[in-house]
Amino acid sequence: LAYALIDATIDAFFPVVERYTERLDALEDAISLNPQRHLLAALHGIKQDLRTIRRVFWPLRDEVNKLLRDQTAWFAAETRVFLRDCYDHTVQILDIVETYRELGADLTDLYQSSLSNRMNEVMKVLTIIATVFMPLSFIAGVYGMNFNTEVSRWNMPELNWSAGYAFALTLMAAVAAAMLYFFHRQGWLGSLTLPPRPRRLHRPDPDGDRSPTGVAHDA
């Protein structure tokens, strides 16, 4: 009976641990597409759950090992073979938990990297826009000084041109086109992409079902 209880307790954790595979895979896809703060919070929650499982199974593994080595008459010789199976299961669960914890750490790094790349793309777009409009602002500032052309014929004779406004707009368009062409030749516009719009993703329910060990898992 004691062996049956130990074996049932250990084996009951396998489906609990396996559920984290799908959750971590879903988080990896979501973080790669669009890193958001609530994804990092969900990842931290999973890592806390895995730490809880590890704290439960670490002493359990030692206790099963003690029972396996104990030569008292509590367990028959044929039962000790099954205790070895229980011990192997505890080691297997601990190995799975450690693997998932390492994956959680990798996903945290992926979140930081994706967030940094997304910020770099935003800064790239803003930098190109600011660079294109910088000479246009200079041209608009020069022709906005409004010097009196009657005082001197050198005081912006373009202001008296019938096509002066069209000339200024054409000059601005030509400068902007030349700069965009230069950026294109340098390859700076080839990978220019705006960050995707945030998607509404499923957030883990903080009040979801919990196992007797306090580990949250899906229903």
Write up what this structure looks like.
The chain is mainly α. It has a domain at 2-119: Up-down Bundle (Methane Monooxygenase Hydroxylase, Chain G, domain 1). Helices cover 69% and strands 0% of the residues. The protein is built from five helices and no strands. The protein has helices spanning 2-11, 13-33, 37-69, 77-142, 164-185. The chain is rod-shaped, with a radius of gyration of 33 Å. The relative contact order is 0.12. Residues 194-219 have low confidence and may be disordered.
What kind of sheet is the major sheet? none
Give the amount of beta strand, in percent.
under 5%
The global form is rod-shaped
Radius of gyration: 33 Å
Number of helices: 5
User: N-to-C SSE series?
Assistant: HHHHH
Number of strands: 0
Distance between the termini: 29 Å
> What is the CATH homology-level superfamily of the domain at 2-119?
Magnesium transport protein CorA, transmembrane region
- CATH top level of the domain at 2-119? Mainly Alpha
CATH architectural designation of the domain at 2-119: Up-down Bundle
Structural class: mainly alpha
- Average predicted local confidence, pLDDT: 78
**Helicity range of the residues?**
55-70%
CATH topology heading of the domain at 2-119: Methane Monooxygenase Hydroxylase, Chain G, domain 1
Oligomeric state of the chains present here: single chain
Which residue ranges are poorly predicted, with pLDDT under 50 across at least 5 consecutive positions?
A: 194-219
Task: Lay out the secondary structure.
Elements lengths: L1 H10 L1 H21 L3 H33 L7 H66 L21 H22 L34
Helix pairs in contact: 1-4, 2-3, 2-4, 3-4, 4-5
